[in-house]
Design goal:
This protein is an all-alpha fold. It has twelve helices and no strands. It has one domain: Tetracycline Repressor, domain 2, CATH 1.10.357.
């Protein structure tokens, strides 16, 4: 996702450095040298390195929330919505690779930094929406009885570690990886597994919807 102007260039460079090195090893001096500007210019725009991380995390979490809202508008059933969220977590590695890796690898920093309270709340909203769909599926008799909050944490925990192994240019397409996750997670919830094949499919009808919603919030 492109950001115009000098400020956007600084933030994109910071995001790439965090994705490649991690937050602690990202140095404002290195960013300034790479862009041919002074550290004072970076401080003028962002204040501190923590301020840059806050902008990264809040922006990423806000786009997640917006994408989920768009998908919810178009996909009414709880199993469709859960499959869409799973595919979205994978596809975003293709649409916004550095920002996705940078955000996912700094989950520990997200919990520790006082400045990231708003980002934590946005992330919590996304998790709450997913947990609500697990509970709704149970109430509708689509999913078996499980601890909805724990199941949601298990899902997000596995998806947020994708950055350590997933290669968007690798042999598996994002749709194939997403379908694999849907097969395991949704297959563990559904009471009637006979319908699972249509959702655990790289060519599932909901996949283009996910792409459209993610592109809409990334524009």
């Amino acid at each position: 996702m492109s950001r115009s102007g000098r400020r956007g260039e600084i933030l994109e460079t910071f995001i790439r450095h965090v994705a490649e090195r991690g937050y602690e090893r990202t140095n404002l001096g290195d960013i300034a040298d790479e862009l041919g500007l002074s550290k004072g210019t970076i401080v003028h725009h962002f204040g501190t390195k923590a301020g840059m991380l806050r902008e990264l995390e809040e922006g990423f979490a806000r786009r997640q929330l917006e994408a989920v809202a768009l998908m919810w508008q178009r996909l009414p059933a709880p199993h469709e919505r859960l499959a869409a969220v799973i595919h979205a977590f994978v596809i975003v590695h293709t649409l916004a690779g550095p920002a996705t890796v940078a955000s996912q690898r700094e989950v520990g920093q997200l919990a520790a930094e006082p400045e990231l309270g708003a980002a934590r709340r946005l992330r919590r909203q996304v998790r709450d929406l997913v947990a609500a769909e697990v509970r709704r599926g149970i109430e509708l008799g689509v999913f078996r009885q499980v601890d909805a909050e724990l199941a949601t944490l298990q899902l997000f925990g596995s998806l947020q570690w994708m950055w350590v192994w997933y290669d968007a240019a690798g042999p598996r397409t994002p749709e194939e990886v997403g379908a694999g996750f849907v097969d395991v997670f949704l297959g563990g919830l559904l009471l009637d597994r006979l319908c699972l094949r249509q959702w655990a499919d790289p060519g599932a009808n909901l996949v283009p919807v996910v792409w459209e919603c993610l592109r809409a919030v990334s524009a």
